[in-house]
Amino acid sequence: MSSLKFVGESPQRIDGLEKITGAATYVDDIDFGARLLHAEIVETPFAHALIKRIDTSAAEKVPGVVRVITGKDFPYRFGLYMQDRFSFPTDRVRFVGEQVAAVVARDAKTAKRAAKLVKVEYEELEPVLDLVQALRDDAVLVHPDLGNYTHCPWFFPQAGTNIAHWRKTRKGDIEKGFKEADVILEDTYTVPRYSHCAIEPHVIVGLYDLSGRLTLWSASQSPYTQRHVIAQALAPLGLSHKDIRVVTPYVGGGFGGKAGVSMEIICAALAVVVKGQPVKVRWSRAQEFYNTYQRQGVIARIKLGVKKDGTITAIEHTLHWDAGGYVEYGANVVNAVGLSATGPYRIPNVKIDSVCVYTNLPPSGPYRGFGYSEFHFGLESHMTRIAKQIGMDPVEFRRKNGIREGDTLAYGAKMNPSGLHQAIDRVAAEIGWGKKESSKDPNKVIGKGFACFWKAPAMPPNAASSAFIKFNEDGSLNIGVSGMEIGQGFMTVMAQIAAEVLTVPVAKIRVELPDTDRNAYEWQTVGSHVTWGCGNAVKAAALEVRGKMFEVVERALGLSRDTLYLEDETVKCRVKPDFALPLRDFVINGIQTPHGNFVGGPILGSGMFMPEFTSALSDPETSQGGHPNVHYTVGAAGAILEIDKQTGKMRVLKATLAVDAGKAINPQLVRGQVVGGLVQGLATVLYEDIRFDKKGKLVNANFADYKIPTAMELPDEIVPIIIEVPQPDGPFGARGAAEHTMIPAAAMIANAVEDALGLRMKTLPITAEKVALESIGISYDDVKGSHMGFCFVGRPDAYNFHTKKPSKK
Amino acid sequence: MKKQITLKLNNETRILDVEPGDILLDVLREMLGVKSPKIGCERGDCGACTILLDGKTVRSCLVLAIEVDGHEITTLEGLGRAGLTPVQQSLLKHGAFQCGFCAPGMVLAATELLGKNPHPTKTEAKEAIAGNLCRCTGYEPIIEAIITAGSKAGRRA
């Protein structure tokens, strides 16, 4: 560990040249020739309705139309953690824009024209567009068949209600904890829905060839999981895993939106129906917004008790999630939060209820941060508020209560090594915490905001990684993994890990893009776990390769393998200093002995990794007894914010974020994650403002009305800080540090707004318009109009968090 | 009714028949085999389909193919034929891109800027790429790379 040569360096990205020259191929760039078919989706205009009849006859008569497909042709359900989603719904639609049919035609224009001729008769149902209404005892049910759905063992759906999952975590004695408190602060925070906005829309091409083989070229973060989920869905047709191949070229951004399976199931269905011809399904920008995944909205009540000396005694955190029409992936977001909504603090008495509620808005799912961004907004706002209430500095308050290695987590396991306190100190110093700043402009005020964060990957306990390594004749090598290069720099990091073990420079290593026929298994590229998980597998493969090389040298030349080591792409020997055998001389063709024969052969290696210490089995009433999370990555962030008092316009003068990466395998890439994630997080506070009308239709599904930052919307200065407290079971001490960087942004800004104006914003986003109105005493809730950002239409303060189990129907 | 058009694409004369309603982006990608301009929003918001039309950046999703009859088009494929340009080198060195989907448009926007203003300020660099959305990088490394490429050009001159 002391003399690392490749790990900890920032070599040129190994995918850099392809991307800078335009050589990088994305799914939509692959040519399929004249036989490629195009699909157009027939979408429902209703948030909730029964499908009475679908008449496809007029569409089928259009020249150039190959097939029109509905739920009758393809009635199968699918889902990652819960099989509640339909390739094409058969009986009812559950969100505006859901697919009810698809037209497959020779060209895209014909498909589009014909799709307009498909007639669908609906019987409108009352849509579930308000959490209060969704949780009423006599609520209209989004999934009347909930009780029959297959789901993972750690979900607790409540049949006869709209509750898809309810994660309860209980630790200590919550009543005693609040009794011990000198001050109790209780308040409600709301976070609307958000959209990932990867610049590449979802796109997939499927070919079910005449031999019965299904190949999917997919813009995906999850090639193997897509194969698995699609194999499960297609099992009734007799297809199994070996009949399905998922190929994933470069992906134009994921952020969770291209994890799991969403629209891809449609292509799989169409391909099977139009056997023998490839069919492409490419989402428009609008569909990208409403028919993949959205980040779910949440309303959260936090009750926090502290002693006068600043010690936190108890937290009660209740979160009601607007999870949309399908929660096959999103319910696990709710679950993850239910286990971790204490934030990075040592709190002896904990009561968390994280409730996943079906509504008739678009399906929810993974989005960078996986629920943590959402709950950190309220929690980190609350931490600052309560600190001020007891007259304690908010940063000092965090230092005092910040979690440390060995502390007991809310679900009973122990905290991993953590650089939280280092991160707090570095961020506080970087923004000159405690030093009040004022603007030269009398119309402007300056405030400082601070927030901590943590996050663990949310994975099944047997989420596995594996890797192949093979050498080429010149001593260069290929790594066959199925982690996905979604921009984070995965390939380069894997190359650096192999380079470190094998002394082969990064420039001589090719990391292959996934193909489930060839590359080794990876569960998914989500949760910022691949540097850690797949990195461990690559390291294991590299060690196996090294062992095989030494074994060949021992057999061919009689040098004991225990005396051999690698240096500069050469096998060397401790007891024979003049011995030096370049790898390129034997890794394919072996070593010639004095007898003229050759010993050895092409050197190959494989490695695997699974977090064997984890378990999702625990008491459903308390979450005690399991070890659901592998480890947490922690950090802190701070901002200096300037606000124009008249217009509310905000300018981030400086933003800084410190993240404990364990060991930054590639510091430039970690800094890239900090800057990119922080800007994405700032966008959720300052700009992005999703709007649904009162019938559940998304009204701003484009980049003109849903504002993501351009280059003009950046902080004046961003300072990334890397903390390195090694993760004992990570490759060279590394743990993930990518998702995390957007988590603290919202609370950090809210805290800065309060510092500047004395105004506490409890609902996201915090736009200039809101700040300007609230500063002159006009409640935004009173004037926001009829549009809503998630499934709650009333005033947050009035929301009744009843956690009484609704009576069964 | 198809109409024949002639254009110079990456320094090569191409002749083809297009429908009056054909979008330039689709024609480039599907008929002319040029894949670097990407489809991101199909309404001029994201800049992923940026090309140079007679040396100026345009969104090829907002241009009809028949409009470019007699004109000159450069895409990323045509830029680095003789090796990476200084701005490409600088972007590469700065690890400026992550997923790379916005890169073709971004490189062309930077190329146009440095062509008319070899020493841009940070604000000028930001303005030049303000029509090109990137969701990964937070733009910082891209801006940094453009400015560095500019100052290098200055040193050489």
Compact overview of the structure:
The complex is a heterodimer of chains A (809) and B (157). Chain A has 809 residues and is an alpha+beta fold.
Keywords summarizing the entry:
heterodimer, A: 809 residues, alpha+beta, Aldehyde Oxidoreductase, domain 4, Aldehyde Oxidoreductase, domain 3, 3 domains, 5-stranded mixed β-sheet, 23% strand, globular, B: alpha+beta, Ubiquitin-like (UB roll), DNA polymerase, domain 1, 2 domains, 5 strands
3D architecture notes:
The complex is a heterodimer of chains A (809) and B (157). With 809 residues, chain A is α+β, with helices and mostly antiparallel strands. Chain A has 3 domains: 155 residues, Aldehyde Oxidoreductase, domain 4 (2-Layer Sandwich); 180 residues, Aldehyde Oxidoreductase, domain 3; 380 residues, Aldehyde Oxidoreductase, domain 4 (2-Layer Sandwich). Chain A has 18 helices and 30 strands. Chain B contains 5 helices and 5 strands, in the order E-E-H-E-E-E-H-H-H-H. In chain B, strands 2-1-5-3-4 form a 5-stranded mixed sheet, with helices on both faces. Chain B is globular. Chains A and B meet through helix 1 and helix 15 of A and helix 2, helix 3, helix 4 and helix 5 of B.
Q: Which secondary structure elements does this structure contain, and how are they paired or packed?
A:
The complex is a heterodimer of chains A (809) and B (157).
Chain A lengths: L15 H6 L15 E7 L5 E7 L1 H4 L4 E6 L6 E2 L6 E2 L5 E2 L5 E7 L2 H8 L3 E6 L6 H4 L28 E9 L2 H7 L2 E9 L11 E6 L5 E5 L4 H12 L9 E4 L16 H10 L5 E4 L2 H6 L6 E10 L5 E11 L7 H11 L8 E9 L14 H18 L4 H8 L18 H11 L13 E12 L9 E7 L5 E4 L9 H13 L6 E4 L17 H28 L6 E4 L2 E4 L6 E3 L8 E2 L5 E2 L4 E6 L23 E12 L5 E11 L6 H20 L31 E6 L21 H13 L10 H8 L4 H4 L26
Parallel strand pairs in A: 1-14, 12-13, 16-17, 20-21, 29-30
Antiparallel strand pairs in A: 1-7, 2-6, 2-8, 3-7, 4-5, 9-17, 10-15, 11-12, 11-14, 15-16, 18-28, 19-20, 19-27, 22-23, 23-24, 25-26, 28-29
Helix pairs in contact in A: 6-7, 10-11, 10-16, 13-14, 15-16
Chain B lengths: L2 E7 L2 E7 L5 H8 L18 E4 L2 E4 L12 E3 L11 H8 L9 H14 L5 H7 L11 H17 L1
Parallel strand pairs in B: 1-5
Antiparallel strand pairs in B: 1-2, 3-4, 3-5
